[in-house]
Amino acid sequence: MVRPGRFAPAVFFAFAAMASPSVVHAQAAPPPPSIAPVPTELEMAKLIWSTMIAVEQANVSGNYSVLRDMAAPSFQQLNDPARLAQIFAPIRASRIDLSNTLLLAPTYVGTPQQIENGAFGVRGYFGLRPTAVGFELYYQWVNGRWRLYGIGISPQPLATIQPLGTDGAAPPAPPAPSQQEGRRRRN
Description:
The protein has 187 residues and is an alpha+beta fold. It is built from 7 helices and 5 strands, in the order H-H-H-H-H-H-H-E-E-E-E-E. It is globular and about 40 Å long.
């Protein structure tokens, strides 16, 4: 025996789906996992923010295995958690709170550069006070998502990387990050 109202939620959802079919069809299909999409400005910022918070959490906890496991396979092969702890020791010693980077939009130095098929690099900084955080990050398209491929993070005096001045000059490029690992340069 069927009790009244037992199938009401299923009937409601079926009716709602029929009443608004344009919502279902309005969404663009994601690209196949093998085709790397060009990240939008928001997607790029989210990649950078998530990387910064992953490094901050690894620095605070002393556990770099999650940061490593979320990275591209080639990064994982080159960097075990102990090596990552060693690489990020200067950032930990500087006591910079990388979670503060979530409060600002990244400022880019140049445009993202494709370094090889399915991988790109982006450089920039977060204008935190009194110490800015410079970054050079590389991502690779793996199984349908961007994954960390190489990383460089360096604290920098804010005075060395000011935004566009009154003369219209571009900000100077941040110094090469000292903790850059997990990728090979191609010349």
